[in-house]
Design a protein that fits this description.
The complex is a heterodimer of chains A (960) and B (118). Chain A is mainly α. Chain A is built from 41 helices and 4 strands. In chain A, a hairpin with a 4-residue loop joins strand 1 and strand 2. The N and C termini of chain A lie far apart (96 Å). Chain B is 68% helix and 0% strand. The chains are: A mainly alpha (960), B mainly alpha (118).
Amino acid sequence: MSLFFIVALPFLGALLPGLMNSAGRSATAGVTFTVTLAAFVGLLTNLPAVLAGNVVMARVDWMPLLGLNFSLMLDGLGFFFALLILGIGLLIIAYARHYLSRDDNMGQFFTYLLLFQGAMVGIVMSDNILLLLVFWELTSLSSFLLIGYWKHLPEGRQGARMALTVTGMGGLAMIGGMLMLGQIVGSYDLSVILQNRELIQADPLYVPALVLILLGAFTKSAQFPFHFWLPHAMAAPTPVSAYLHSATMVKAGIFLMARMWPVLSGTPEWFMIVTTAGLITMVLGAVIALFKHDLKALLAFSTVSHLGLITMLLGTGTAFGAMAAVFHILNHATFKAALFMSAGIIDHEAHTRDIRRLGGLRRLMPITFVIASLAALSMAGIPLLNGFLSKEMMLEEAYHTVLFGSPLLVPVLATVGSLFSAAYCFRLIGHVFFGPVRDDYPAKPHDPNTGLWLPPALLVVLVVAIGVAPFLAEPFVKLVTASVLGDAAAVPTAYFKIWHGLVPALYMSLIAIAGGLLMLALFKPALFVWDKAPRPEAKVIFEAIVEAVAKLARAVIHATHNGAFSRYAAIALVVMVAVGYHAWSTGTVGPDTRTVQYAPPVFIAAWLMLATATAGLVILHRNRLLSLILIGIVGLMVSIGFVFFSAPDLAMTQFTVEVVTIILLLLALNFLPKTTPVESTVLRRVRDTGVAVLGGLATFALSFHYLLRDAVSTPISEFHLANSYKGGGGTNVVNVILVDFRGFDTYGEIIVLGIAALLIYAMTETLLDGPVRARLLNRKPDQARSGNKHPMMMVVLTRVIMPVVLMVGFYIFLRGHNEPGGGFIAGLIVSIGVVMQYMASGFGWASARLRYPYHGVIGAGVLIAGLTGIGSWFFGKPFLTSDFTYVRIPPFEKFELATAALFDLGVFLAVVGAVMLSLESFSRLARLAGYHDSDEPMDIDPLRDDTIAAGHAAAEKKGV
Amino acid sequence: MEFLVASAIGILTAGGIYLTLRLRTFPVILGVSLLTYAVNVFLFASGRLTVGAPPILQDGVSTYTDPLPQALVLTAIVISFGMTAVVVMIGLGAFLGSDDDHVDDQPQTDEDRSEGAS
């Protein structure tokens, strides 16, 4: 299966669980399982190629100029991780089906899980580091949703927030590091980067890049000092913990270190940072884990500790260390997932995870006992289980590692870590399963049904199989190691076996196991000491930092944003003028290249009207109705200006937009006060006048200089003029640009217009539902109402004119490609025609005759335009490539058929829908506010016999 | 003629700025509309001023005005209607909700405070 499908399947599949929710819990889980299984099988189809040592690639250019390509690769390492993610994912899905209760929204859970799964698979298969970053951030986001799945629990929300903050910040740091890496190499493709070890390590940016990338990896993999988020993420449902903290999320950081190992490792900086962090994390995690009473907290800290162990192994920079790391990743994933699931079973059956309240479960839950004990013993490093093998390799590697010049430091700390590790494993078995059966469990524990114990049991089979017969795993681990190492080192020849002879690692192992048993015996006094010892509480520190940052942000915002819009506007305007002045005074102004043209008297008259209307508007703006009339004059003069300067399309658009804008403002003015009171001080008005004059002078100077000079380089319009007819099949160049050359822009613009209209609709809905509703219903009109709201003259006139308007709209639309006109203008004209019906006969009458809702019209328009664009794909052309032909149907003249006309139809519909939806929304407010109109077209209708006039006539007749 | 167009842009801008700095929503909306005119004309003028040469291709005619700014301004005019409508709706909603059409946050009066405290 193509790599694209493997990555895309979980994302596409994420749509399904939500849809299947109503079909029942098994169906929801089943569809999730099927999707994952399909991806898993797809992955396995690539196994032969990977085993043959090939790297499977798939690539689609996304933004090649930025170096961002959707390129995927699958080598041994990627395959290994994808196998863990999908394989353990399958078990988790089966487990979660039985774990989640009826109150949990299962569709939501599996949707999050699939999103997360897809993001993880994306990380391990990315060949492009920018793409990898995208998936990396997606895991942070989707894990946030998963950890906070139980939204009603404050711990869940806090844990999710903490995980997102820590891993998100690490992600930001990593973006910086990856960009540096890309800059050094000159490519963002991993396959290229991995070939350039010397180049990268010799670069001065190597250390900053390394530190930033490691910040990302350490935060994700919970390495000291960022380990604190992981235990708090345990508030998630257990399937999530089992998935995120055994095989996936926290392994992403490890994966990244392994992936970058060939180019980043082997330097003193790498060794110091990674080994030290790993070592501290390993010991610290193990010590804390021993004293945790919550089963999941114990496992969480043990995960922290084991991640530290793997990190330390990768830090040593030797091939043997890398191989041990790979092997331990596999082993840890198996036994830790099994342990988490067992903890979930105990929680599920006994209703508590507190070790102090458990004990004696060996007799009550024999199956769980076997599963959990085998997994825990493997984690403790007991022979014949897989944990022993990789732990031996770790101790062997530690024995040869010299840190800070001391040959003892690493071996001793590794042994101490292993000792505590063994101790908490023994405690888990001893305190939970052994001891007397109690009679005070919160619920009577018993073994769960097969659905819950089978998934961990399968994992434990692996634990034992690898432990007894390590040669089974050896070829695969070596294959993965080979792809970790790349060209940097050869795969070690050492064999995996249980008995290596009396080597130092064995003695260290024995010390650890014996010490672990001793610790368990001394647990009570040790716990006493631990409880008395002062410890920093990570959560408190984290929250104090967050609080301090929030306080700082609040202080800055409150000082600068006092809610006075006019202040912001004034400051922004002065700054703009100042920046413009700076550009003006530092740049060079060329000589005039154009001559001033003669202005005919008509033009001067228009200018005078515009200037007078604007001045009048400013002076008389307190009378709001008058100011509307004045701004209408300004708009009209602008339209006339467009006519004058050879822009007929613009003139028509401006003219029609002017009409609908004024109607819109009138509808709003219906509710707003009719006058603006005098409030601002004289000083303030003088200040505002100053700012306004300054801005006006600046734009005047800019435009005047602009108009007298030719463009500094040749405008691209020549191309449009030359190709409009040849390529676009139309003689109206403006329209051809809109629907063809820059059709994609237009497509975006009609979408924006549609969104604006929907926004207005949404706001109206909110207003009509909220407290405003009551205000509107109680509102008394502030002006006298007309006695005849729907005058007959107007009704008749608008009805007669309607077909004419539609005809004109149709004509303007059709001729748009070759003459001034087109979809935008036609849409506006038709809207005006429809609005007139509303005005004449009222909202109720008009909307009762409305057959298609305006949202639908907007949607249809965008859809038609989009489908026209997609149509060109079927001919192997890019989106929105247009085509046209000339046909002749007798007896008509030859005429043109262009796909651009179809696109223009989309524009037309979107404009009609958007304009009408906006105006209609305003009218709905008015309708609520007591302007109840009848369903009749007009108030006084001579045709109706129930009118007073008709009544009189009838009476008179009788009288006679 | 260039002087007249440039001064028209300047006048529209100055009027627009002055009204934008007013305290109530309605004049601010009118001010923004004036600024919209100014910006549209300015963008249009970037194709320079040509009289009597509309960009409609005809046989035998070789001078046309620059069509590109026209196409861009055409959509800008339509979009500006959409944006005006949204702003008007926001202003109207705020007024209906609070019976107050100031654009600036009003300093809390004693009455408000006592309401908030109770």
